[in-house]
Each structure stands twice: as structure tokens, then as C-alpha cells.
From TrEMBL:
This is Peptide deformylase. It comes from Deinococcus taklimakanensis. Its EC number is 3.5.1.88. Gene3D superfamilies: Peptide deformylase. HAMAP family: Pep_deformylase. Belongs to the polypeptide deformylase family. Its cofactor is Fe(2+). Pfam families: Pep_deformylase.
């Protein structure tokens, strides 16, 4: 696929993929980005495709590392109702969107340190695993750069604050399971090991395709 393809749907990286544990780097709104397996795109194009990927997966947020890009960018949406993942529902998520967010180089500041543990939390990179009791600050302020290069700031509370904290964690290589006792991760060990195997298989296939593409391009140059 090329950068001119509209609304690409990216594969979402699974638990065990090294990119999900790396600290992401800053980026500029004028950068050209290349999601592995796809052609070069503008930041705006990548953000648009990330939103489509998020909607396709019935999620509320998606960070760039989750599509293989180690950059400080995440997208999110606020819906008419607060549902963590909306899995198994027929209603298109986009029909219920109140606001969409694209945040470059976000800086998160806690504005209410009181912890909220009332929501169930999941992750598109850890499909099928949900846990309650993940402690999140009740309110935060996020300062970020938008797609036009302008600095913006938003305050959020309750569920939206949780979404922003979850996605911000991804930019620093953290999962929501990291906020829970180690035995919770141990309870899901079999499922997580399966995801790790799938992640390795995907990366091996991606590497093989990239090598084949490089060899083909070299042949075309001769």
C-alpha cells in the first residue's frame, strides 16, 4: 500500500512486541513517518489511519507504538457513553463519537491525585484481557501539539482521564497490567505467552516481506 491509500487499517502490535516496551521519541507535525509494512505517510495521514484502526478494533484510544511506530503520538475518542472497548456490539463506533483527539508529544499533568479504581480496563495490544482496580488519577491536564503544529491543552476527568493516562503509558513502554500486582499478570500467563508467540511470528513475517521488497527494488535498479 502507498501513502495515497486513504484510511489504512494497521495491524495492532501484541504484547511481547519489543516496540511496546520502548520509550517513544518526540516528533514534529511536519515529519514523514513509515509504519512498518506500509509506505511513507505524513503525520496527518498516519493519525487518520490510526483513528480508523482504533474504530475498526472498537477501541477508545491507540498509541503509535501499538502500530509499530516508536513516536510520541496517540489518538483517542470520547463517545456518547463510556464503554471500555465496546466489543461485540453492532453499532458503528463513529456514529457515537463526541470528540476525536490527536496528540503529538503530549505532556500529562495530574490535577487530582485521588486514585480511581472503579473502571474495568483493557488494551488493544492485550486483546481479551480485562481487569478492574487499575489505579488512575481522577483528573489530568494534557498539553500537546496538534496536527497544525499548535500547542493545545485539555483537562479531563473520570473515564476520559483514564484513557489519556492509558495511552500516555504506551509512549513510555508501559501496560495497564504494570499498575497491578504481579500475580495478576501471572494469572494471564498462558494467554500472554500465546500473544508473545504471535508477536514473534508477525515480526518474522514482516522482516521476510521487507527483505523481499528490498531485493525486488534492488533488482529493478539493475
Amino acid at each position: 500500500m502507498t501513502a495515497t491509500d486513504a484510511h489504512l487499517i494497521y495491524p495492532i502490535r501484541l504484547y511481547g512486541d519489543p516496540v511496546l516496551r520502548r520509550k517513544a521519541r518526540a516528533l514534529a507535525h511536519t515529519d514523514t513517518l513509515t509504519v512498518p509494512g506500509f509506505g511513507p505517510q505524513t503525520v496527518r495521514e498516519v493519525a487518520s489511519s490510526m483513528l480508523e484502526t482504533m474504530f475498526e478494533a472498537r477501541g477508545v484510544g491507540l498509541a503509535a507504538p501499538q502500530v509499530g511506530l516508536p513516536v510520541r503520538l496517540f489518538v483517542a475518542a470520547e463517545y456518547e457513553d463510556d464503554e471500555e472497548e465496546n466489543e461485540g456490539q453492532d453499532t458503528p463506533l463513529k456514529s457515537r463519537v463526541l470528540r476525536e483527539f490527536v496528540m503529538l508529544n503530549p505532556v500529562l499533568k495530574v490535577t487530582d491525585k485521588k486514585k480511581d479504581r472503579s473502571y474495568q480496563e483493557g488494551c488493544l495490544s492485550i486483546p481479551g484481557i480485562y481487569e478492574e482496580g487499575v489505579p488512575r488519577a481522577r483528573a489530568v491536564q494534557v498539553t500537546y501539539t496538534d496536527l497544525d503544529g499548535e500547542t493545545r491543552s485539555i483537562e479531563a476527568g473520570d473515564f476520559l482521564a483514564r484513557v489519556f493516562q492509558h495511552e500516555y503509558d504506551h509512549l513510555d513502554g508501559r501496560f495497564f497490567l504494570d499498575h497491578l500486582p504481579a500475580e495478576v499478570t501471572d494469572d494471564h500467563r498462558a494467554e500472554l505467552l500465546k500473544m508473545q508467540r504471535q508477536a514473534r511470528q508477525y515480526l518474522a513475517g514482516l522482516s521476510a516481506r521487507e527483505k523481499a521488497d528490498a531485493a525486488r527494488h534492488e533488482q529493478e535498479r539493475l
